[in-house]
Amino acid sequence: MNTMDGKPIIRPAVVCWSCKHFSFEGGSPGYSEYTPGYEGSMDCAKNVWSSDLSGLDEDGLRVRLTTAERCTKFEPRKTS
Ligand code: SF4
Asked: What is the whole-number distance in angstroms between the Cα of residue 49 and the centre of ligand 1?
C-alpha cells in the first residue's frame, strides 16, 4: 500500500477506514430542484458506531475512527 504521493506506508494505522466494514460517501451538491444534492455520510456495516454525524466534532471523529484499535470485528480492507 502506498500514500497518495506514491511512497510506501511504513507504519499502517489500525483505523476504521482501513477496515472492510467502513464506507464513506462524500455527498453531492444539488444542481436543481429536480436533482437535489445529498449529505456526506460514513458508516460501519457492523453498527459498532452510529452513522449519525450530527454534532460530531474533530475529537469525536478521531475517537470514532480509532475504534478499530480495540474492535473485534475489524477486518482489513483489501487493496489493489
Ligand atoms: S468499528 Fe470495527 S467493524 Fe466498524 S469499521 Fe471500525 S473496525 Fe470495522
From this structure: 8
pTM value? 0.79
Tracing cell 444539488 back to the chain, one arrives at 30
- 71: cell is 474492535
pLDDT exceeds cutoff 80 at 50: yes
Helix (H, G, I), strand (E, B) or coil at 29: coil
Ligand 1 neighbours, Cβ below 6 Å, are: 16, 19, 21-22, 44, 46, 48-49, 67-68, 71, 73-74
Distance CA(9)–CA(20), nearest Å, equals: 18
